[in-house]
Amino acid sequence: MRSRYSGQTGADPWSxxxxxxxxxxxxxxxxxxxGFGSSTNPGSLVQAAYANxxxxxxxxxxxxxxxxxxxxxxxxMGWPASFSSVLAVTATNSSDVRPCFSSHGPESELAAPGVPxxxxxxxxxxxxSGTSMASSHVAGAAALVIAAGAQDPxxxxxxxxDTVLDLGATGPDDLYGFGLxxxxxxxxxxxxxTPMNKIKAVYKRTPLKCNDCLNTNKCRCDYLSGLSWxxxxxxxxEDIMASQAWRNNVNKWEARWQT
Length: 259
Fold this sequence. Notes:
Elements: H1 14-26, E1 31-34, H2 44-55, E2 59-63, E3 86-92, E4 108-113, E5 117-121, E6 124-128, H3 131-147, H4 153-162, H5 183-188, H6 196-199, E7 202-203, E8 237-238, H7 240-258
Helix pairs in contact: 1-2, 3-4
């Protein structure tokens, strides 16, 4: 069953969210996708509403927010994503890298594609970017896990976090949480390791700017921090740091799933 409570602007009072959570409970909803948020804590009543829904068997998934910093330091996580009863989702781009807008903080739990995503829009369809796009992917993956037999929100969260592709620093981190969600692995329990030739970082002369932060001199996103674009149009090189990080992740997952 699919339902929506937010209006066209998404700037609705928190009382609407509380009512929607109660409706979800009354109608046997297993997963909610909260693609909205606030930079300020809405208070104990809203926190209790999400906690009660979670305790009653509803998995609440929420967008982390779109107020991230170039450096990826500090806590910019919004609410309701910051509540412990809510699964917080950050965004990645097509290179499995955090876009600079994606919020970050210790509450980060999973990452998912959020740049750019073809989605429903007022009057039809459109291409959008944001952690709201990312949270939709995780909510869908959670629904698949439930359909495969998972029984409660904690179990679903455990399965989703156990079957990720680790991004960024090894293990959980503030930018990607446990890592990139993998719906197929979560349902089947099998990790598919991405081929090295697909995930190696290669820098070329054009377009001379990062598509995420649009910095024309040097990209300030976490993945490219401290690295310059190569000026020779005929030259390309593999970024050793990035490829080694990926090799570490590949080796870790292979070791884990062979034991």
